[in-house]
Amino acid sequence: MNTTTEIKPTKIIRPFTEAPMEIRLLGRPLDWSIAKLQNPGDGDRPENQDLVKRLDLITTLENPRKDYTLLAPRPATFNAVICDRFQLNKTVAFGLGFDKKQWEEYLRPLLMRGVDADGCDVPKGSAFWLSSADCPLILLYDPDTCFLICGHGGFECLQDKQTQLTGKRSRPFPSIVDSMMEVIRKHDVPARRLQYFLTCGIAEFPISREQYNKRYEIIVRWAQAMGQDCYTINERGTFIRLGNIIRSQLRHHGVILRPEDSDGVDTFSDKEKGEHTWWSYERAVLESPDETLKRNGVMVIHG
């Protein structure tokens, strides 16, 4: 199925008023998972042709630049690591389907892979990509130096499971927020100068005793310690508010919270014309298990 002629973002956001930056959100019905694009030759495989064309088109859409480096660390292990962009050393070239003349006349985007991490720094002139289905993306930005970090704010990225169960750390920092703030400190950026933005996440992340066993009580106490607005327990069940957990952790590091700090997206419940707008892993588990591997696309273009 050729879908390239229909491509446009589901939603476009400009997160910071004075920054040359744009978030492009891509939801249903197309699947925006890039799990099949890990190694240099993967962009040439026929089965990936439609996906590569779509990524190329959405990256260059209405952009004067056509040569963006699209930074995409692999977040599947929830290790809360922020890598350096230079560690992404596996290049997947876009442009399959373009003839030689087009290649000579136009630069094409490059997808950079090769590291298991939940985020990286994103310099001007590049872009960041996350395939997700409920996990919010965190942007931290210093307006004075234009330094930007993007981080995958998934549930397991916000607390260390092994620490909760055994008391021993599985990673250097308990949360992706801690990892991001450590990079910020190394760049001598004061926390109070930072701007932040949260995009494309689930409003209420469900947890249950059946799913988390003895960890359930630990998670509830952890959320309670973050603040009363970080969890909900009612007749529907127990829910963790990931956005408020992230805000609580940012505030702990000295970041000044601001009122308009998210896009208001709820991947679980948002609908348009009676149809779900976004892929949601948690909704798929309940309603359509064959959709659990479908992903939204989150692209942050740092112009």
Q: How many strand elements?
A: 17
Give the overall average pLDDT.
92
User: Which oligomerization state do the chains in this entry correspond to?
Assistant: single chain
> How large, in whole angstroms, is the Cα Rg?
19 Å
Share of helix, binned: 10-25%
Second rung of CATH, namely the architecture of the largest domain: 4-Layer Sandwich
Question: What's the overall geometry?
Answer: globular
Major sheet details: 7 strands, mixed
Number of helices, where a helix is a run of at least 4 consecutive DSSP H or I residues: 8
Tell me the structural class: alpha+beta
- Gap between N and C termini: 32 Å
The top-level CATH class of the largest domain is Alpha Beta
The low-pLDDT segments are: none
Architecture overview:
This protein has two domains: about 5-205 and about 245-300, 4-Layer Sandwich (CNF1/YfiH-like putative cysteine hydrolases); about 205-240, no CATH class. The protein has about 300 residues and is α+β, with helices and mostly antiparallel strands. The radius of gyration is 19 Å and the shape is globular. The chain has a seven-stranded mixed β-sheet with strand order 1-2-17-8-3-6-5, with no helix packed on it. It has helices at about 50-60, 100-105, 160-165, 175-185, 210, 215-225, 240-250, 280-285; strands spanning about 10-15, 20-25, 70, 80-85, 90-95, 110-115, 120, 125-130, 135-140, 145-150, 195-200, 205, 230-235, 235-240, 270, 275, 295-300. It contains eight helices and 17 strands.
